[in-house]
Design goal:
Blueprint (H helix, E strand, L loop, with lengths): L3 E4 L2 E4 L4 E7 L5 E7 L6 E7 L4 E3 L7 E6 L4 E6 L8 E8 L8 E2 L3 E6 L1
Parallel strand pairs: 2-11
Antiparallel strand pairs: 1-3, 3-8, 4-5, 4-9, 5-6, 7-8, 9-10, 9-11
Length: 115
């Protein structure tokens, strides 16, 4: 069992920045961020493996940066140039082993971007 705790959400004006964190209760091979806005389906944001391989959703490429501190079991998402469409609940997800999918999910942290 893995517990994931997100933090760092908040309210920011368009063009601003936020950094999200997700601390896991144990080592996870792969970790990712997803988001869900009201009335919309969950959307993939970004993922990273322990080998530092990263993937980004098209809507955040060039603006968001994912990173992972394996020693601290912590995932980060640096979000720059935020736009109103980035407003959503952001969820951390993780898989322990390389063959696992995202079996564990956090409760989410809210990001609100205003004009």
């Amino acid at each position: 069992e893995v517990q994931l705790v997100e933090s760092g959400g908040g309210s920011v004006q368009a063009g601003g920045s936020l950094r999200l964190s997700c601390t896991a209760s144990r080592y996870c091979y792969r970790m990712a961020w997803f988001r869900q806005a009201p009335g919309k389906e969950r959307e993939f944001v970004s993922a990273i493996t322990s080998g530092r391989r990263t993937i980004y959703g098209d809507s955040v490429k060039g603006r968001f940066t994912i990173s992972k501190d394996n020693a601290k079991n912590t995932l980060y998402l640096q979000m720059n140039s935020l736009i109103i469409e980035d407003t959503a609940m952001y969820y951390c997800a993780a898989g322990v082993d390389p063959e696992d999918g995202y079996n564990y999910w956090g409760k989410g942290t809210q990001v609100t971007v205003s004009s």
